[in-house]
Amino acid sequence: MDTLKLQKGNLENFLQKLGEEFAVFAPVMSDGIVSFLELRPGQKSVLDFPRTHKPPKDIFYPQTEVMLRYGRDGLQSTEYKGKPIVLFGVRPCDAKSFILLERVFIEPKYKDPYWVARRNKTLIFSLACNDPLPSCFCNWLDGGPFNKTGSDIFITDIDDDYLFEPISEDGERFLSGVDILKEATEKDIKKAKNAKERAESSMEKPPKLDSLKSSLDTLWDETLWDEISLRCLGCAVCTYSCPTCYCFDIQDESRRGKGVRIRLWDSCMFPLFTKEGSGHNPRPLQKHRLRQRFMHKFNYFVEKQGEFGCVGCGRCVSLCPVNIDIRSFITSVIQTAQGRGDT
Amino acid sequence: MKELVEKIRKIFSDEKLELLIGYTKGTLPLRSTPGLIESADEADKLIFDFTCCNNLAKYLVDEKKRSGNTHRIGIIAKGCDARAVVQLVMEGQFERENVVIIGVPCKGVIDPSKLRKKLNGKEIIKFKVNRDKITLFGKNFELELNKNELFSDSCLSCRYPNAVQYDYFIGEPSEPLGVRDEYASVDEFEQKLPEKRWTYFEKEYSRCIRCYACRNACPMCYCEECFVDRSTPQWIGKGNDLSDTIIFHIVRVLHTAGRCVDCGACAAACPLNIDIRMLGKRIEKEVIERFGFTPGLDFETEPAMATFKENDKEEFIM
Amino acid sequence: MKTKDFEPKIMTFLCNWCSYAGADLAGVSRLQYPTNTRVIRVPCSGRIDPLFILKCLQDGYDGVLISGCHPGDCHYISGNYVARRRFAILKTALEFMGIEPGRVQFSWVSAGEGEKFSQVISKVTEAVKVLGPMRKLVKAANSLVG
Q: Domain of A314?
């Protein structure tokens, strides 16, 4: 199927129409914060916003999710039974994050019913980044401003129009049924190609990360963990703003004969994360907790899933209150290992 | 910067410091990062300018937890950092003689969350300063601002830009910026109807994701276990239920009452630009009016919430 | 709900050494006062963490009363003085946020003041009745438990 296009002026119409059948989630500005919210009629999405403050993972994996309700009359399940979902305007890094998260939530043996219930009903429209930000580093991690991994339909902004390119079968099926879209001309496709080249060349050349995993294998006791962790405040800004962090806690809240079991985001940066009932904590210092975060993303995840558990969205880089930059960490790991002649 | 480095190097060896807490250059424009150096040779990494927004007193407590109370530690201190150090000493967090306060004149620091707000999602690659103006350059934009527009709200009405208590002072003391009246925004807010005030707080705190950056950036939050982390019993829910979140924020402010030095580190750390300062500022005002206490000014006055007077006002008690 | 039908639930924290005995005295003196209060006995008003008060409001109490010893009478010499500073701050915070000041009240009631105890309870109950049910800060209202 060919690439289609939509005049920018028709976008709202298009989204409105989508809203009849789907719950449409798009970047919305609310109180100065841009995040993926369900579009209400008449509400505007901000597609030109470079990177949402919050990652879109909470659509499939909310910060607080009710797993079940209970009362004197028994248990009730809380699986998603709503409309099918459209996720509109996800940036390529975030679209790729879903693929990584699915290795955890939909692995062959255990399937997370809460994730699956929403995810299986979702179409992902991702939007190319014409202007990657200086803190973006998706190109370090097999991604890029025009990377199509994880998309059903790939959108490119070409001045007056949006190009819609079907990627998955679902995407193709969807696009064939929309009459507001016109066929894109060769000129349009050329424009998109130029935008891609411009965006890619505007990013700094990435370092080679082939040796990152094996370098980390040898750096468990290295003082480099001290150097970074001494500055670390131990807050959860990095983990909660990360599109690929998925750790959670489960709690029961109840009163007066009824209650809920909730699943809530947790962070390996918190001392409580690994504190055991006995009072013993296998990761007593911030150094151990920070090491866990970095090792998980760049070592354990690679070992188990075959790729890095980071998409290079750059949120933690720009939001960390003390400017701990994961990019400098990566380069210093490689340098330290090379300096010791380990790799 | 050269003067700073030279003097620090000398202080490092004169005072036989084991650690010095200062600032080094960050990886992003207009950002610095705390720098903990262990030898005088590393002093040339140190900087001090308007990007140094973190409150370094926080690291003194961390360091004590890590290596006991015997280390001799130097700290580069703006007015607010120095006040925090004084307050921590008054609270018995470490011995006065184990910390060397090196005052530096502060002319206001940039609040990263204000910068993010101004840039509306974009990022800069460089900047240029011309007196009171600052020009920000991005990949395909340019933005000229008054420096005050980026400075932390705390700085705009700061009364103590220079360390009040110090062992060394490097540079010429600076004047308060005096851009805003200290309690103007609190007084103005108080004129609103209670319903409006509640709605405002609900709106602000509803953005909270409970990352606890505000708590962890605060030099005064040093409890071994925060009340939100307590599990026997568990006092408040840990999800992002609004009432749980609001209680966290109220109690955080109550716990820092009469101790908060209004450094603005909490607001600067918040990734979601929540107005964390408003409630704290009102409490600060109450502590001054009711108990006549301003934290962190001297090593003699007993902190307000750790003491009492028999004739404290009690108009609210039946 | 109309004010006159509304029966508020009020949590009272009473100091063991004074107000709790004051309540006892009110009882044995057969003094009448509203039955809207639930009592928690504490060793001292200084034992009250503001978090207790907030927790009560969150759990659906419409008002909270804390009652301790008169200044100078504290069994532990100064517990009530320290508490007084703490309560002043809490009160400022709640009022500033827009929570009705009548929701959280404080009194000094000695063991001999059975009469005063019954008056305080009547006054607080009346005040909270006028305010109506607590809606702000209540978890049940907007929570997952629902």
A: 212-339
